[in-house]
Amino acid sequence: MAKTLCYKILENHLIRGELCPGKEITIAIDQTLTQDSTGTMVYLQLEAMDIDQVKTELSVAYIDHNTLQSGFENADDHAFIQSVAKRHGILFSKPGNGICHQLHLENYGKPGKTLLGSDSHTPTGGGLGMIAIGAGGLDVAVAMAKGTYALTVPEVIGIRLEGKLGPWASAKDVILHVLKELTVKGGVSKIVEYYGPGVKNLSVTDRATITNMGAELGATTSVFPSDEITQSYLKAQGREKDYTPLSADEGARYDKELIVDLSTLEPLASMPHSPDNVDTIAHIGEIPVDQVAIGSCTNSSYADLMKVAKILEGRKVHPDVSLVISPGSSKILTKLAENGALAHLISSGARIIENACGPCIGMGQSPKSKAISLRTFNRNFKGRSGTLDADIYLVSPETAAISAIYGKLTDGRTTDITIPPIDEPQFPPNDNFIVYPKGTNRENTPVAMGPNIKPFPRNKPLPYQLEADVTLHAGDNITTDDIMPSDAKLLPYRSNIPHLSNFCFVNVDKDFAGRCRETTDCAIIGGENYGQGSSREHAALAPLSLGVRFVIAKSFARIHRSNLINSGIVPLVFRDKTHYDAIEIGHRLMIKGAPDQIKDDTIIVTNVTTNEEYPVAGNFSPLEQKMLLAGGKINAIKGE
Ligand code: MIC
Ligand code: SF4
């Protein structure tokens, strides 16, 4: 039978189970990546697993999120991660090298390999024909320790690309169009596979922009074929030997199909406050803009920044706009410096900041109150910029640059500016930012522990009678940024869960943490797509440290559901969605015989306050049941 590309790669890595949608499989993981804001937890967990060297072909620890260093905390975290990397044979990428996904694409990604990363945008690697999956930190720690990862086999959405992008339309517009079609939950339990004649009209970094933002669809991952364009990208990076041609078999069938004619796409924007709230720029209109931010793992490639430089060359940033640019990697910045493009950017009035995540995660550059900020990033959730009342629009680099000049949201096609084609130059190898672990091991390298690094919370085995007070009743599409906000003030506490938990849900319900502390065991009620967004397991660990024992929602986002299970918090789904409205804050809920019930298709939750019963579903795989019974993944592993 003709196979899809993603199933071919999964099949090559299959260790256990049947490659059939909905079934649980275990696959071999070739590579892992971590970044620093999730990495400290990953490496505390790896240390707790008592292993020697990692079992993967390659593991890299990047520092790119918490680079502001406004106190000792971030620098201590970096030193901790560097020491653990040395102990276990992991490459360490120093701060300043760039953003993990851009760096991994440039330096280590290989067609046909599997990559697990403790960051939701790990699917960027799909632009190179990899199966690259974002996961919670503990899953990545286990992948390093054992070289494996268990997942439920996703269905495959095939997106057939036809035609060629017209002037001012960009790879970003492709994924914004797909988001408009499929929405932020359209990709849950799915892999998105691109194919068709239009693929050859997109560069590898274009493809990576598209697979990167597949995370916003909720997809497990997204993947492109590996072809001669992949080969020339790898050649430009001095890695032609890593090339393997890969594609789906002729006639492969997809569970769902979508056709996108690239030639019909026009410049688009995601409007506040959701990436799928997409419209054409022509239709949104020429709204005045206060800030423009260009960068992030979605749009900080060499070609992206060269396009921006060509648009800005000889022109001036509008007086009312602050334009800030964060390049994706040190190699890209070096090239821009060498070819003069950096001078064009600076002399136009742009602010150049570090090669890092920066403003994308609220690490600086928060816009002014009520600002309109155009960003080439991937998430525009309320408050994520660090300014709660700012309106964030997600756009392509081309649209961002032209709008920075005109001071208003601008459709480039209405101007007389043309952008010349950008050729990918040869990037000479430079690993000056990489620390290799050679010659070190556990015995000769101590762990560097700063005073802000606290042990991660552990759960207890599932009790017979699980009882909890409802401490939050949340709406649809709650993001992990809602659950555990991240900004320049809070990110330094990513290694200190007891402190961080005080800010859990602070922008949704500021009394949540206090309410939890007044009782022993708590429950959360959520709407659709609960926990969408990032992979941060802090969105499970902070609630755990506040005593949350279960969450009942209308539906869950994939990574967050896994993170809850890994922490021993039981994620349950309403069988009858009207029951969502029957539960209120302060009600006491009970699951009798919880260890037996979690094996059943239907679990009965009793509302002790109102005497009602709610049938809910868990759909837990045998592995998930084991983790929940033990009170989380670490406990389950220790008990093996
Ligand atoms: C994000 O973009 O939200 C982050 C910050 O990169 C997160 C990881 C984190 O919260 O540390 C992600 O996408 O997984
Ligand atoms: Fe960093 Fe932003 Fe990408 Fe997350 S989405 S990895 S914060 S650049």
Written account of the structure:
With 640 residues, the chain is α/β, with parallel strands linked by helices. 28% of the residues lie in helices and 19% in strands. It is built from 22 helices and 27 strands. Strands 21-22-23-24-27-26-25 form a 7-stranded mixed beta barrel. A 6-stranded mixed sheet has the order 7-6-3-4-5-20. Strands 17-16-15-18-19 form a 5-stranded parallel sheet, with helices on one face. Strand 9, helix 6 (171-182) and strand 10 (190-195) form a beta-alpha-beta unit. Helix 2 (36-48) packs across helix 3 (72-88), helix 2 crosses helix 5 (137-146) and helix 10 crosses helix 12 (341-348). The protein is globular. It starts with a helix and ends with a helix. 57% of the residues are buried. The mean pLDDT is 97. Iron/sulfur cluster is lined by residues 65, 99, 119, 121, 296-297, 357, 360-361, 377-378.
